[in-house]
Amino acid sequence: TGPQFVSGVIVKIISTEPLPGRKQIKNALAVLAEVAYVDMLEGDTECHVRFNTPEDAQIVMKSYKEIQIKNNWKFEVLTGDHEQRYWQKILVDRQAKLNQPRDKKRGTEKLIAKAERMRLEKTQQTSKHIRFTDDN
């Protein structure tokens, strides 16, 4: 069914420089409240964070001064028309994701692909150079 509309759970983060990754934002905010989803593209200067409850969003808004100063971010809770449009975007994005054609592999094909990935990972790891530096 996907996420259900709840008013006051979307917080928009705006930054003067490109935001760090989705995981870093989630970790920074998870200290204060439980984050449901972070919607952003790599290198964006703004993103949307969906919380589970409006109370979680308010907790972040009340204690965001320290995060704002530390990261140079600006927060705002989406309301009204902006909120409606963003929820429409969520539904459209979700539908597009669900309608994507999937590459179906079965049986030995799947095992061969997995073994190949593991072999590639192992060769990449063994080919790393260890460099020692002398800081004296």
TrEMBL record:
Residues 4-117 form the XRRM domain. One of its GO terms (molecular function) is RNA binding. Signal peptide: none annotated. InterPro entries: La_xRRM (IPR014886), LARP7_RRM2 (IPR034910), Nucleotide-bd_a/b_plait_sf (IPR012677), RBD_domain_sf (IPR035979). Keywords: RNA-binding. PROSITE patterns: XRRM (PS51939). GO terms for cellular component: ribonucleoprotein complex. This is LARP7 protein. It comes from Jacana jacana (Wattled jacana). The lineage of its organism: Eukaryota, Metazoa, Chordata, Craniata, Vertebrata.
